[in-house]
Amino acid sequence: MARIVVISTGGTIASRWQGTGFAAEARGQEVMAIAAVPTGIEVEVVDLFSVNSPRLTTAHQLTLLRTVHEVLADPGVDGIVVTHGTDTLEETAFLLDLHHDDPRPVVLTGAQLPMEAQDGDGPGNLHDALVTAAGVRDLGVLVVFDGKVHAARGTVKTQTVAHDAFADQSASRVGDVGFGRVSVLRVPERPAALPLPELPDRAPRVDLVMHHTDGDPVLFEAALAAGAQGVVLVATGAGNATPAFVEAVATARERGVLVALTTRVPAGPVTEIYTQGGAVDLVAAGAVPTGTLRAGQARIAVLAALLAAPDAERRRQLLHAVLGAGSVAGAQPGN
């Protein structure tokens, strides 16, 4: 028997009607009761918390991270499934993956329809997540939805309500689940795992700022004034903004604030092509390009670097290592 621990955190898969809308309410045993447990798998449930995932905090995520490590400290555990809300699942999955150094899988899943919905997707997703947790090794943290297996890194929510809710729009999926087994299509590349961070009294503030037509760095500067230790600039195209943002990034670096550069474009890498406020200048001013990671996961990378080191330069080095940041050879202009 494969021994799989299910950690329940809430989300739509644990949601019931509240009179005006749905909200996470059910505990882990109730969530497990909706799914058929595959033959040959023994399930243990950890009720961690039950919240809608937009309400998750860094404290919630770090508590889950520590719980995952505590569960895997038991050599008799074969894998973990985390039931989670879909809105911030991509952020939690990436945080877990950045600190995961174990051949046993951690699989996140959830639902787009509440637990009592007819023909809901939760039971099937949970079944497939259990199959995956019992059937793979050395793939890191995974996201399983709608019969598909995705690497945590790069996978984001791409559909607001459709069952096929997740994808990495810059890479292929890791595998498929069907007929009670997992077919692995590729092995994701992952950097060395970060050490488990301490639980801070107060999590470092990391803000997102998006560039757009007529955009200026007012909100970027407001984030600095609010005490942000990290800022993710969500730029246009391959990572482009304006000269005013270049000045703001340089000021942030002088203050020891960690700045990451991503793009609002759904697919493709951040690339140093353009000047006059483009990625060439932003990177020269101190922004760290995030490759194909998008805003939510870029923020998690910054957060992890902040939690891992006390000084600004070491944090930059860690962020580069986590991201594999840098120019993309052979990139072509595309703005």
Write the layout of secondary structure elements.
Elements: E1 2-10, E2 15-17, E3 22-24, H1 28-32, E4 41-51, H2 58-72, E5 79-83, H3 89-98, E6 106-109, H4 122-135, E7 141-145, E8 148-151, E9 156-157, E10 166-167, E11 175-178, E12 181-184, E13 206-210, H5 218-225, E14 230-235, H6 243-254, E15 258-263, H7 279-285, E16 288-289, H8 295-308, H9 312-323
Parallel strand pairs: 1-4, 1-5, 5-6, 6-7, 13-14, 14-15, 15-16
Antiparallel strand pairs: 2-3, 7-8, 8-11, 9-10, 11-12
Domain L-asparaginase N-terminal: 3-185
Catalytic activity: L-asparagine + H2O = L-aspartate + NH4(+)
Protein name: asparaginase
Care to describe what's here?
With 335 residues, the chain is an alpha/beta fold. It is 29% helix and 22% strand. The chain contains 9 helices and 16 strands. α4 links the parallel β6 and β7. It is globular. The N and C termini lie far apart (54 Å). Residues 205-318 form the Asparaginase/glutaminase C-terminal domain. This is asparaginase. Residues 3-185 form the L-asparaginase N-terminal domain. Pfam families: Asparaginase, Asparaginase_C.
